[in-house]
Amino acid sequence: MKNQYEVAVGDMETLPASDTREEDGLAKVFGRAGAIMLRPSAEWTVVAQERGDLSYLLNSYVAILAGIPALSGLIGFVAIGVGTPNAGTLRVPVFPGLLGAVFGYLFAFAAVYVLAFIINVLAPRFGASKNFSEALKLAVYSYTPVWITGIFLLLPGLWFLTVLGFYSYYLLWRGLPTLMKAPAERALGYAGAVVFAAFVLRILIGWTEAALFSLPHVI
């Protein structure tokens, strides 16, 4: 029969395991994010060999990274605000700001699905193979720079740096031949068609978000 001390120690020993699993999950997500941005060619080869785990892609990768711009934007718009020469600092009211953050967060999940759909539908036109699972992996991981650069929404003076998220389009181009089996000579045109469709969609969603929740429009 365990004494009180042994029970307490046993309970304490179970805590680090849970924390470690959580830390391992975050390390895996940010490790993949760093690898796909710094070594795209090599990392796309690794991604192509992985099974398309929908649960991991959405519940771990998108769920964590999409929270960066949502939370940063909420703090930047509501707490810090935008400085103007005549009106001082303008801030978004808490409730509209919170709704905007939730809308933007949920949009991330819809965006990768729509992008994957576009990639898959356009595949035959560019000599690529239709495969929604591979298209979804490509869409999710290509979106990484958009979410990472969302940290710049924290400070109004750094909002312009969110344009670095356009690096996503380079990642998409590099990943199309590996995941969608697109001919290398047609990958650029394929990427351009996907980017155009995605860019139009993003502008429409951005203006809708700004109009509905009174948020400054940042592409």
Task: Explain what this protein looks like in three dimensions.
The chain is mainly alpha-helical and 219 residues long. The protein has one domain. Helix content is 72%, strand content 3%. It has nine helices and two strands. A two-stranded antiparallel ribbon has the order 1-2. Helix 1 packs across helix 3, helix 6 packs antiparallel against helix 8 and helix 8 crosses helix 9. The longest helix is centred in the N-terminal third of the chain and has 35 residues. The termini are far apart. 33% of the residues are buried. The N terminus is likely disordered.
Low-confidence stretches: 1-22
What is the helix/strand order? HHHHEEHHHHH
Summarize the main sheet: 2 strands, antiparallel
Roughly what fraction of the amino acids lie in strands?
Answer: under 5%
The coarse overall form would be: elongated
Q: What is the number of helical segments per DSSP (H or I, 4+ residues)?
A: 9
User: Radius of gyration over alpha carbons?
Assistant: 21 Å
Q: Which assembly state applies to the chains in this document?
A: single chain
